[in-house]
């Protein structure tokens, strides 16, 4: 009986020791790996660039957490040899993340998509800069492809027509997207926009997708008023159908690469450029800016009218007076010229 009681005590002691060890182990594991990090913010964004190493990752991570790197994260990084397989990208850390979940997120490269905004872009250089400012891609990497004739040919574009590929919008992409994948994605978005319905509309008005984008770019440089864009598009369509020069001042600014011009002079109209629509009939070689969806739609659904001339309104509202004949147009033009003179705008950039 005494021996039995002694065995029970030994068993109970061992059970207690195991229970204590188990609780200690669980507590250790919980606080080291499973306890929420509890950062000060609800969430924070953390970036890993292509030139980051383990030291810089730790520095950036500590800045994002606003606290020392959890020991559990460092332990897992060492055990799983994370420094040898660091994944670039944009990561979101929440206050519910633990050392374990945070490590898995970075170790597996489970990025958070980012919103790429492409809008209000006039030139390819501006596009490269805007994309470079938002993604891991450097602007010079994108510009390199702009000059790669073989690559552009594979896309079906030239450097002059390339702006027609892009549909300005907000896109969800990964921050570390490669340059070629960026172009592929823009190609997919282009095809998504140019669905069967829009392609049919373009065919009905006798323009290709590139030509629609080219005309839309001129329309958008002429007016910011969305309700006026179909009217302006209709005017240029009338001129194209009659074989008249477009005589679009924005194309002169593009030819001169001076977008701040406030008053086009006769000398400006002599610029030797295929973009000079006072000299050359038809559309210029390509878009003079990245046409927005609104601009593209305004060409596809242009207003049917008989106007052939337009002139900026003398109230500087940004809208235009339209005319069907040259005499009426000259009356409108004189009103605008007088308004320019009153504001002492006589030539390039003068105020």
UniProtKB/TrEMBL annotation:
<feature type="site" description="Important for catalytic activity">
    <location>
        <position position="222"/>
    </location>
</feature>
<protein>
    <recommendedName>
        <fullName>Endolytic murein transglycosylase</fullName>
        <ecNumber>4.2.2.29</ecNumber>
    </recommendedName>
</protein>
<comment type="similarity">
    <text>Belongs to the transglycosylase MltG family.</text>
</comment>
<keyword id="KW-0456">Lyase</keyword>
<comment type="function">
    <text>Functions as a peptidoglycan terminase that cleaves nascent peptidoglycan strands endolytically to terminate their elongation.</text>
</comment>
<keyword id="KW-1003">Cell membrane</keyword>
<keyword id="KW-0812">Transmembrane</keyword>
<keyword id="KW-0961">Cell wall biogenesis/degradation</keyword>
<dbReference type="GO" id="GO:0009252">
    <property type="term" value="P:peptidoglycan biosynthetic process"/>
</dbReference>
<dbReference type="Pfam" id="PF02618">
    <property type="entry name" value="YceG"/>
</dbReference>
<dbReference type="GO" id="GO:0071555">
    <property type="term" value="P:cell wall organization"/>
</dbReference>
<dbReference type="GO" id="GO:0008932">
    <property type="term" value="F:lytic endotransglycosylase activity"/>
</dbReference>
<keyword id="KW-1133">Transmembrane helix</keyword>
<dbReference type="GO" id="GO:0005886">
    <property type="term" value="C:plasma membrane"/>
</dbReference>
<dbReference type="InterPro" id="IPR003770">
    <property type="entry name" value="MLTG-like"/>
</dbReference>
<keyword id="KW-0472">Membrane</keyword>
